[in-house]
């Protein structure tokens, strides 16, 4: 069941549950691998590797959410033979939600819990003007201005140039996305936000509750849009507590 979309999974036959992690715009999901060390026994972290970055650097980027979800759904179905969870940050939240909705509609499958982070509810208009169409220099300046990439990458302009194609593809996909009205999810949704994140304010985070008939929870951490790194330990601990609670109430 090897797939370039899930190159880091190593417990295909032994894990009891899978926890799929989707990267933010232009990001490489490899940093999620370290989360495995904190997961409850039997839960496998499965970072999702999009084309055009990391070990798939030479593949064509996908700049359409609809196209991305259609391909990803076919790939992930083979791995949904046991309970699973989704986590996404920023653009990864949009992917994880759309994939969960598509699977719910087409295959009557959905994650046991959808964890999303640092992104406005997809059915609301994007609060920010589009920048995907701008010339390279202007596009990068706007990404920097809106804190759209970790500071470590933005500090090295020549390094950022390598990420430009996948970053632009992800911004294009997010900014041209149009929400389709589908039946509501029934799984719980937890939305995480940064207290100083101006990309997703209280209203945009709170509106995620309108996308499920299940439980909803909003949790804020200190930090800006990339609290996923600055508050990583607190974030992981919070997720793990939810997973353990769910286990204790399902056994």
UniProtKB/TrEMBL annotation:
Pfam families xref list: Thioesterase
UniProt-listed GO biological process terms: lipid biosynthetic process
Domain Thioesterase: 19-239
InterPro entries: AB_hydrolase_fold, TEII, Thioesterase
PANTHER family in UniProt: S-ACYL FATTY ACID SYNTHASE THIOESTERASE, MEDIUM CHAIN, THIOESTERASE
Family according to the record: Belongs to the thioesterase family.
Protein name, per record: Surfactin synthase thioesterase subunit
